[in-house]
Design goal:
Elements: E1 3-14, E2 17-27, E3 30-41, H1 43-56, E4 65-70, H2 73-80, H3 83-89, H4 103-116, E5 119-122, H5 130-146
Parallel strand pairs: 1-4, 4-5
Antiparallel strand pairs: 1-2, 2-3
């Protein structure tokens, strides 16, 4: 089965502050870059939004394996360690009964995760992964381009 690789990253100038997100989709020799800006947000929201936008770019019923790479432990651990499932089962409450932050984005990601079943893979940020570094460049460039408009 063919494999689509999605690299994602989010950035924030201040936290909260102006934010940017980016996703890089790789399929064989094809490459697609996506990025965007949010004027008032947090870094965690940008990490989630990058993953959501990347997964939303996948055609329905594509029938391919999807590997989503992120340097966000928040994102990858929530999916891989079952936190997302627990939050949903506990009516969007954490283990210490607090309301889950960024619930709107987690709901959207949970639906995409259910529909597409991507593998979430943690990569080291700002290191030697050129695809992760490119996503960081794209996200930061969105902040620089839009912050003072």
């Amino acid at each position: 089965m063919p494999t689509l690789e999605i690299y994602t990253d989010g950035a924030c100038s201040g936290n909260p502050g102006a934010g940017g997100w980016a996703a890089l989709l790789l399929y064989g020799t094809a490459k697609k870059e996506l990025s965007g800006f949010v004027p008032d947000t947090t870094n965690n929201r940008m990490e989630l939004l990058a993953a959501i936008r990347g997964l939303n770019a996948v055609k329905p019923k594509s029938g391919m394996n999807i590997k989503l790479y992120s340097d966000s432990a928040y994102l990858v651990n929530a999916v891989n360690n079952g936190w997302l499932d627990s939050w949903q089962a506990n009516n969007w409450r954490t283990s210490d009964k607090r309301e889950v932050k960024n619930q709107d984005l987690w709901l959207e990601l949970a639906e995409l995760n259910r529909r597409l079943s991507p593998a979430f893979i943690k990569v080291k940020g700002h290191a030697d992964n050129p695809h992760n570094n490119r996503c960081d460049e794209l996200a930061v460039s969105q902040i620089k381009r839009n912050k003072f408009q």
